[in-house]
Write a structure and sequence with these properties.
Strand order of the largest sheet: 1-2-3-4-6-5
Largest sheet: 6 strands, antiparallel
Shape: globular
Number of domains: 1
CATH class: Alpha Beta
Strand content: 25-35%
Helix content: 25-40%
CATH topology: Aspartate Aminotransferase, domain 1
Number of strands: 6
CATH architecture: Alpha-Beta Complex
Length: 112
């Protein structure tokens, strides 16, 4: 299943000020890498955006409307720090920016 090219373009634009960004086919979608670590993946099926966030803030992020624990196959949780954000929860640029800021904060913590 193809990923959402419009959402991929929005993520690309949101990351345009970052250095060392590259795109990789991964998880059946298009992943965005910053400093060689995946920060987000536009899904090829089921959910719209897979994000990698701080485990310390995992419960907080799961409380955001449209966010749920990411799964690698039905019933196989990816664990803390891996969240899928539904497409409907990303319709506003401010909502997407919230998640981009979250993934970049985690990326900055882990790539110092």
């Amino acid at each position: 299943m193809a990923y959402d090219t419009e959402l991929a373009g929005r993520v690309r634009a949101a990351l345009s000020d970052e250095e060392d960004v590259r795109e990789v086919t991964m998880f059946g979608g298009l992943a965005f890498m910053v400093r060689e670590q995946m920060v987000a993946c536009v899904s090829g099926g089921g959910g719209a955006l897979l994000v990698r966030v701080s485990r310390d803030r995992d419960a907080e992020y799961l409380g955001v409307p449209g966010a749920r624990r990411a799964e690698m196959g039905t019933g196989r949780s990816m664990g803390e720090g891996w969240i899928t954000v539904d497409e409907e929860a990303l319709s506003d640029d401010g909502d997407l920016r919230f998640w981009i800021d979250a993934v970049l904060a985690y990326n900055a913590e882990t790539t110092r």
